[in-house]
Structure formats: C-alpha cells, structure tokens
C-alpha cells in the first residue's frame, strides 16, 4: 500500500454539494447543487477563475462540456442552460417536462436522462432528434447518460432496472442498440478510452465494446465487487469511477471521505488517502492527477506517494452537514 496526498483546490463548506466535475484542456469545472452554481478553475494552475450562478430554482443535476468556452447544465425541474465562460452569461435555455438526472453531449448531440426516457437533441438547432422510451422498464430512473468523446454518435446509459444500453443516436434503425444486464441497479456509466464501464450498487464492471465490430457483443474485461475489496479495506463503501492515466485506475471511497485508488488489473496494488469530510461524489483525471469532488463541497487533487505517510493527516473541522430536504434518491447508495 502507498499513500495518496491531497491538495485543496476548493475548501469544504457545510451548505453545498459538489455533484459533478468535468474538464477541458484549459479548465476544471465543478457543479454545485445547493448554491446551483458552476465554478471554473484554470489549468494547469487550478486557481479559481469564476463562480457562475445558474439562477435556476431547481437543483442542478450535472454539467456537460460543449467546447472549450461553454458548458451545458441541467436541473431536476427539466431546465437546460448553456453558459459561455468568456462572458459568464447563459446564452441559451430551454426546458423539457421531465426530471433530469443526467446530461452529456458530443459535438452535435445533447442527451438527457430522466425518470421516463432519454432524449437526444441536435445542438445546432436544439430540436429533438431521438427519443428512447422503451430501453428500460417503466418506473425505473435512468440514472446516467454519456456520449462517447471519440465517437460522437455513440451513447451509453444505465438505469435502476439493472440494465445498461449502448446506442447509435444517428442510426435510422429503430432498435439499433445493445442492452447489457449488470445484475443490480446501475448508478453510473462512462467511457475509458476505447472501453466502457458501469458502476452499480456493489460492483464496477468494465467492457470492451468492440466498436469496430458492431456484430460482436461487448466482452467483460474486469468485474470488481465491493465485498472482495472490503476484505483488505473494510471501510470501502462504494465505487466512484474508472480512469486511465499511466495505468488503469479504479476509484472507490468511504463515507468518512477516504479515497481508494486501485490498479484495475491487480487490486492488491492500491493507494489510500484522507482529505474529504464525507462521501466523494465525482472524479476526473487530468494529466495523471486524480481530482475529486464531494458532499463536503471540497474539490481535492491527489498525488501518489511511494511510501506510506507516517504523519497523521490533519483534518479540517467542518460544521455538521445541513439536513437536506431535497430528495437525493438518484445518488444511491451513497
């Protein structure tokens, strides 16, 4: 075991949640869903650039990078906005009649996931181009949607009904999608270079989707189970994501704010660090540096140390977390 040492990008606060992190080549962007604001940090300095209010009366769900200078945001009331970093202004806004849990985009496609369906919009005119209503069982929330950063027409999504779907949003065929059973309610999906992964309540499963051979079904590369890793790390409570830097990294966390980083190919090799004061919600990797955001509102950058740190980590005292009246069911099991 070796240690992760955290550096503070944004300090803790008792009255806000960092629910999403994204990055461009010049900015790290954080989404906060109590203040309903978007924070940008310059790269590589990671210094705060601006705090942009969205002026929504709902609760922010996620953000999606459109280009170097702009980002989409969505809230739980179905409102979607596009912010230009250069002016800090909302340049476009529209709504759908559904509760949005997740949002993502490619160059020309914007996808939203709700409690009913997935909608895909053409960003050039903001007209709806696809509507997926039958991918998942009724009364199951579609918890996450992601567009491929390499193939802008490929969309990945998952739902509480234990299914993950891989779709070609530009296909003229009505049923041009692949469904995968992930055995338990799915919380998050993502692209890891040419591979895909799904985070469920107790697992993280990685697949080779064989994009170059559409007739070949996706193949499982790694299947990680919480109870297996809890034999060496009993405090581990959930998986966060998977990233590729110098190696393939599997991230997990404890409800006390510990971060665990495992080698996906050999989970006996891992790093652990302390820094957050509660559950870690989201992560990105920028040039091999892990960056996380949490329920404590903090954003931390993590560096690897070859040897375990002997000095006890000094925690920042944070006031008791406020009671949230807003329903947070799509963040299960955190």
UniProtKB/TrEMBL annotation:
Record key words, sorted: Repeat, WD repeat
Domain of life of the organism encoding this protein: Eukaryota
UniProt cross-references to Gene3D superfamilies, sorted A to Z: YVTN repeat-like/Quinoprotein amine dehydrogenase
InterPro entries in UniProt: WD40/YVTN_repeat-like_dom_sf, WD40_repeat_dom_sf, WD40_rpt, WDR89
PANTHER family per UniProt: WD REPEAT-CONTAINING PROTEIN 89 (PTHR22889:SF0)
Protein name as it appears in the record: Anaphase-promoting complex subunit 4 WD40 domain-containing protein
Organism: Stentor coeruleus
Taxonomic lineage: Eukaryota, Sar, Alveolata, Ciliophora, Postciliodesmatophora
């Amino acid at each position: 075991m070796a240690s992760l040492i955290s550096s503070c990008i944004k300090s803790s606060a008792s009255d806000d949640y960092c629910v999403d992190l994204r990055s461009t080549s010049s900015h790290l962007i954080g989404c906060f869903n109590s203040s309903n604001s978007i924070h940008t940090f310059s790269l590589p300095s990671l210094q705060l650039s601006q705090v942009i209010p969205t002026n929504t009366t709902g609760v922010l769900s996620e953000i999606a990078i459109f280009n170097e200078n702009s980002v989409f945001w969505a809230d739980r009331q179905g409102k979607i906005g596009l912010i230009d970093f250069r002016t800090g202004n909302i340049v476009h806004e529209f709504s759908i009649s559904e509760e949005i849990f997740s949002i993502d985009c490619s160059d020309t496609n914007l996808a939203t996931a709700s409690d009913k369906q997935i909608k895909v919009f053409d960003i050039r005119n903001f007209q709806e181009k696809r509507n997926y209503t039958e991918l998942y069982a009724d009364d199951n929330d579609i918890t996450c949607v992601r567009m491929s950063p390499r193939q802008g027409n490929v969309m990945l999504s998952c739902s509480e009904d234990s299914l993950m779907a891989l779709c070609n949003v530009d296909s003229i065929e009505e049923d041009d999608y692949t469904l995968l059973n992930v055995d338990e309610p799915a919380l998050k999906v993502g692209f890891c270079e040419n591979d895909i992964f799904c985070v469920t309540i107790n697992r993280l499963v990685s697949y080779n989707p064989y994009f170059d051979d559409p007739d070949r079904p996706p193949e499982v590369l790694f299947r990680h189970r919480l109870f297996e890793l809890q034999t060496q790390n009993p405090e581990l409570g959930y998986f966060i994501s998977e990233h590729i830097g110098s190696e393939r990294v599997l991230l997990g966390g404890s409800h006390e704010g510990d971060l665990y980083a495992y080698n996906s190919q050999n989970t006996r090799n891992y790093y652990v660090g302390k820094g957050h004061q509660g559950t870690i919600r989201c992560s990105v990797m920028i040039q091999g540096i892990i960056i996380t955001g949490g329920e404590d509102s903090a954003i931390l950058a993590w560096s690897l140390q070859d040897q375990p740190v002997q000095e006890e980590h000094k925690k920042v005292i944070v006031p008791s977390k406020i009671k949230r009246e807003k329903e947070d069911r799509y963040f299960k099991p955190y």
